Amino acid sequence: MLIANVSPRTGGKTTNSGWLAHALQEAEKEYEVAGFDADHSQQFHSWSLTGEFTFPVEPAATAKFHTSITLPPGKINIVDCGHTENHPDITNSVLRVADLVILHMSPTKADFDRIIDPPDKTKIGEIIAMSAALREDRTPPPAWVLLNRTISGASSTGLYRDMMEDEGWNVLTTVIPRSEAFGQSVSYPVFGASKGPFGQLVTELEERGLLK
After folding, report:
1. φ, ψ for residue 102 (rounded to 5)?
2. Residue 52: beta bridge partners?
3. For residue 78, what are the contacts with CB-CB under 8 A and spacing of at least 6?
4. Directed axis angle between helix 13-26 and helix 43-50, to 10°?
């Protein structure tokens, strides 16, 4: 299985990719995972070395991802895609083989506009929809919004959840709060990922039948 983590611009994808991968490993079913860094920054790959991850994260920032990257069987493959605004070709390639797309966004007008009405850019929803023509089953992968960097008790979370749903997006119930523990974790080991919101995220993905 391949989970593509995407966003038009910086949206916490790398941090979320690492924590989600660790939460999957620590989950009750103890999923086997592998990581792929399809972002030219290669931060996910660098973090895996410095943070001494127990699973590999391979560099994979290529527009030929669908043909040049061999996914290990029997694992959940977590892909950290580059910003679709700057590298749509890489995202297009990943979407050709993705089983699930997680769109990371903060509940802000800036992120909402970047997704729904980007200036002089192709909408990410259109990129996902257009991937259907290049996929074997001729259908786009399921896509779900993950609200990230939320503030406890803030009305913005519910507001932008409703706005995204009104635009036709599926929105996950789980949210990832703004947290120093997450924001400062890149370059450090990850512990206890399954005990917080990322564990809740794994449970929700299971309950929705989104994990294969």
Report:
1. -110, 115
2. none
3. 3, 5, 17, 20, 21, 24, 33, 34, 35, 36
4. 50
- Tens-digit pLDDT profile for residues 74-102: 999 999 998 888 888 999 999 999 999 99
* Residue range 46-61, pLDDT digits in tens: 999 999 999 999 999 9
Amino acid at residue number 77: N
For 172, phi and psi rounded to 5 degrees?
Answer: -70, 145
Number of H helices, E strands in the chain: 9, 7
3-state secondary structure (DSSP) of residue 53: coil
23: nearest Cα among 173, 186, 185, 197: 197
Q: What angle do CA 125, 129, 130 make, to 5 degrees?
A: 115
Give whole-number Cα distances, 138 to 63, 74, 87, 100, 141, in Å. Answer: 20, 23, 23, 15, 10
Q: Are 99 and 66 in contact (CB under 8 A)?
A: no
